[in-house]
């Protein structure tokens, strides 16, 4: 009984049980994708409670990209052990119905991650390889950190509560965001072009804390590339504010770190990486 209470406290500390609203549309109809439409999305779940902790993306059969703050309470204390975390892939359902539920081997957080959500990026190594197919695919990473993304339409996927009453959706949701100048997130531009500010209306869907780690992607030549992962909200921890834009860690600023940790060269074409 004490163990169960401790687990619940851990998830509350992660901000993912009471005020966990990954994609909120207010009074508007949400967008729910079909099976296989976003086959790279990973649902990071607590192994015992089967509750979604964060989102992530499958970047290699053995590796999932996510946010560092999903697992780190302080520089010396993690929220979860690898044995307490599962990763679900290949399902558009919150309970991962019809998908693969995989055990984790390692949780790796960027060494320069700060409690102010700087360098907010992390990796999960899976114990066994995800089986690729029509509903489970890898997402290629955007590698050009000098490309101007302002004005581009990007897409965010996520599971979690849909309002402040803690109602949990049964299916994955999609938000349509737009890359804004960093002043739209009410802060100074970060060094090394390491973050993305994204804006949207309520009808398009707003990112919120339950979206943490979820992939931010854009279409280029009819192909999705991951440009970011959800880090935090610009203003208040409330989703239903029109000007409460979201901040996303920019993936291209961390390609060298991702490649170094995984041992996989993410500058190479995806077909070459699949067998690494």
TrEMBL record:
Q: Which residues cross the membrane?
A: none
Q: Per the database record, which ranges form the Peptidase S1 domain?
A: 23-263
**Is Nucleus among the key words of this record?**
no
GO MF, one term, reads: serine-type endopeptidase activity
Print the keywords alphabetically: Disulfide bond, Signal
Signal peptide range in chain numbering: 1-26
Biological process per Gene Ontology, one example term: proteolysis
Among its keywords, does the record have Protease? no
Q: Which SMART domains match?
A: Tryp_SPc
Quote the PANTHER family the UniProt record gives. Answer: CHYMOTRYPSIN-RELATED
- By what name is this protein known? Urokinase-type plasminogen activator
Q: Which source organism?
A: Agrilus planipennis (Emerald ash borer)
Q: Taxonomy-wise, where does this protein's organism fall, top ranks first?
A: Eukaryota, Metazoa, Ecdysozoa, Arthropoda, Hexapoda
**Gene of this entry:** LOC108735962
């Amino acid at each position: 009984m004490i163990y169960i209470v401790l687990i619940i406290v851990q998830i509350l500390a992660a901000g993912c049980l009471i005020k966990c609203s990954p994609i909120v549309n207010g009074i508007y109809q949400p967008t729910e994708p079909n099976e296989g439409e976003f086959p790279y999305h990973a649902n990071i779940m607590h192994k015992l409670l089967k509750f979604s902790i964060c989102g992530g993306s499958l970047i290699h059969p053995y590796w999932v990209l996510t946010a560092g703050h999903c697992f780190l309470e302080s520089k010396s204390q993690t929220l979860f052990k690898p044995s307490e975390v599962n990763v679900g892939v290949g399902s558009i359902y919150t309970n991962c119905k019809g998908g693969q539920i995989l055990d984790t081997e390692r949780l790796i957080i960027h060494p320069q991650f700060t409690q102010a959500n700087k360098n907010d990026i992390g990796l999960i190594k899976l114990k066994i390889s995800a089986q690729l197919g029509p509903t489970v695919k890898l997402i290629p990473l955007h590698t050009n950190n000098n490309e101007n993304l302002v004005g581009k339409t990007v897409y965010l996927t996520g599971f979690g509560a849909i309002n402040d009453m803690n109602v949990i959706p049964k299916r994955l949701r999609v938000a349509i965001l737009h890359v804004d100048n960093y002043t739209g997130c009410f802060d100074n531009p970060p060094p090394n072009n390491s973050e993305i500010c994204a804006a949207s209306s309520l009808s398009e869907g707003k990112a919120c804390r339950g979206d943490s780690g979820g992939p931010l992607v854009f279409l280029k030549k009819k192909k999705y590339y991951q440009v970011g992962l959800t880090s935090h909200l610009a203003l208040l921890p409330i989703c239903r504010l029109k000007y409460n834009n979201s901040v996303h860690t920019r993936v291209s600023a961390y390609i060298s770190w991702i490649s170094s940790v995984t041992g996989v060269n993410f500058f190479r074409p995806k077909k070459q990486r699949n067998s690494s």
